Amino acid sequence: MKGVLKVLARLYPAEWRRRYGVEYEALLEEGTPRVRDVVDVFWGAFKMQMTSWSFVRIVLVCSVCGALAAVAVSFVAPKRYLSQTLILVQTPEPQAIDKYLAGQVKDLLSPEFLTSIIERENLYPDERARMPMSDVVNMMRKGIWIAPANGKPGSAFTIAFTYPDPHVAQRVDAELTSGLMTLNTRAEAAYVTREYLKYQAAAAKDPATKAVMERKLRQAVAAPSYLPVPLRVLNVASLPKKSVFPKPGIFGVGGLMVGLVGGVVAAAGVGWRRRVTVMHR
């Protein structure tokens, strides 16, 4: 720790080192440095250097430090991997995907279905230990994307899921796709049943048989349902090779902008202090 503090002392201006260097060395030898002392010495050197820097230099140094710090954070931040499946809507009249899939998606993202996946795949173990399952389900929903391919309404869409483990992301994406296809198959079966009952009710000659068919038809129509969609999986759930978050480049740009703003504010503050000092002399 003493060696680190000696190195940090070199960050102070030369005039300060000539005047207080010997005294600083003596204090280091007599005391037992702490981690907090490292932060205090570094911050003191930084503030002292800034008082002698020009506006441009302060802004430049703060911008570079912000960018480097952000890039460093991007390398230690938890990574997230995206697995996605491409599905084709086989219809001669392409429409907005959300119109086709409104009912299916609602059931797919139901708490019951997502809870079963969370428990089966042991997702979010740390969060489940300290959060209610409803909050964990909402967290999972935020990691699911169901959107038109290429961002445009059309005849194809993607199901995607993000997670820190690429293999888990792939398995969950596959389960979501399987769940959607199952819901669509059930909708198709319900649609066929309703059409069959309509035909039987219209064709029945016997009043009793006709009454039975009409009763079953009313029950089928009253049951929650949605129009089935002809779906075909084009590309199965992918195994992601690279993480989609964090991106060092994006973090670097963000850190650069934050450092730039901070540098401008710091430079303005230093300039204000200089003017006040001159006025009081």
Arithmetic mean of pLDDT: 77
- Inertia-based shape: elongated
Structural class: alpha+beta
**Ranges with pLDDT <50 over ≥5 residues?**
none
User: How are helices and strands ordered from N to C?
Assistant: HHHHEHHHHEEHHEH
Largest sheet: 4 strands, antiparallel
Radius of gyration: 32 Å
Give the % helix: 55-70%
What share of residues are in beta strands? Answer: 5-15%
Strands across the major sheet, in which order?
2-3-1-4
Query: Helical stretch count?
Result: 11
- Tell me the total number of β-strands: 4
Query: End-to-end distance, in Å?
Result: 40 Å
Q: Any overview of this molecule?
A:
The structure is a single chain. Helices cover 67% and strands 10% of the residues. A 4-stranded antiparallel sheet has the order 2-3-1-4. It is elongated and about 115 Å long.
Keywords summarizing the entry:
about 280 residues, 4 strands, four-stranded antiparallel β-sheet, elongated, about 65% helix, alpha+beta
Produce a short descriptive summary.
The chain has 281 residues and is α+β, with helices and mostly antiparallel strands.
What's the helix and strand layout?
Layout: H1 2-9, H2 14-30, H3 35-50, H4 55-76, E1 81-89, H5 97-108, H6 111-121, H7 125-130, H8 133-142, E2 144-148, E3 156-163, H9 166-203, H10 207-222, E4 231-235, H11 248-280
Antiparallel strand pairs: 1-3, 1-4, 2-3
Helix pairs in contact: 1-2, 1-3, 4-11, 5-9, 6-8, 9-10
